[in-house]
Design brief:
Elements (H helix, E strand, L loop, with lengths): L1 H51 L12 E10 L7 E9 L2 E6 L6 E7 L4 E4 L4 E5 L4 E5 L3 H25 L3 H27 L1
Antiparallel strand pairs: 1-2, 1-7, 2-3, 3-4, 5-6, 6-7
Length: about 200
């Protein structure tokens, strides 16, 4: 009987250790995500100072900088000539600026909610919105793919936010209620498991 009890105690300890390790790993992931997001949000203030000398407010609750870098704005699809601009992708805006060092001049501000992006050549892509259409080229194909992927992900997220904000308030309340019930049942199951 003692070996069986020892095995039960050991397996209980193993389960507790596994759960504790999992909780620590989730916490570590959350800390890393929050640190990365904090750094991205602080970049918004830096971009604001660099572009607008603090005269225009880019800082907005929840806005963060996803990526930035130089892209060539092509004059047409057949040519490789164009103007080198600096573009900034925020989670809700796509911004293009002209100038080198010091003060830059903003040329394009596009809302991601109605933005579409398609790859047109190995290192080139087309951005289309209700405000402006741009043909851009990156330094290489991998860089272009990274820009395209980030723009698509952020644009889809913005479109989902817009769709969610158009929900009927009663439908939204029902969704929240259902989600709350799901969370409550998950918590009660976890509590039950920890007592068992």
């Amino acid at each position: 009987s003692e070996p069986v009890l020892a095995n039960v105690q050991r397996s209980g300890l193993d389960v507790l250790c596994t759960r504790t390790y999992s909780a620590i790993a989730r916490l570590d992931d959350e800390i890393h995500r929050e640190k990365t997001l904090s750094e991205a949000r602080s970049r918004v203030g830096q971009v604001q100072e660099f572009l607008f000398d603090g005269k225009v407010n880019l800082v907005s609750p929840g806005r963060y900088c996803v990526r930035y870098g130089a892209l060539l704005k092509l004059t047409n699809a057949n040519k490789k000539d164009g103007k080198l601009l600096t573009f900034f992708l925020f989670n809700d805006l796509f911004l293009g600026a002209d100038g080198k060092g010091g003060q830059m001049r903003v040329k394009y501000v596009l809302d991601l909610q109605d933005l579409k992006v398609t790859q047109t050549a190995a290192a080139a892509f087309h951005i289309e919105s209700s405000v402006k259409s741009l043909l851009l080229a990156a330094s290489n194909e991998a860089n272009a793919r990274a820009w395209i992927q980030d723009i698509k992900e952020r644009a889809e997220a913005q479109q989902q936010c817009r769709t969610a904000s158009r929900l009927d308030p009663l439908a939204l309340a029902a969704l929240i209620r259902d989600e709350t019930k799901r969370i409550d049942s998950t918590v009660s199951i976890s509590v039950r498991e920890s007592h068992d």
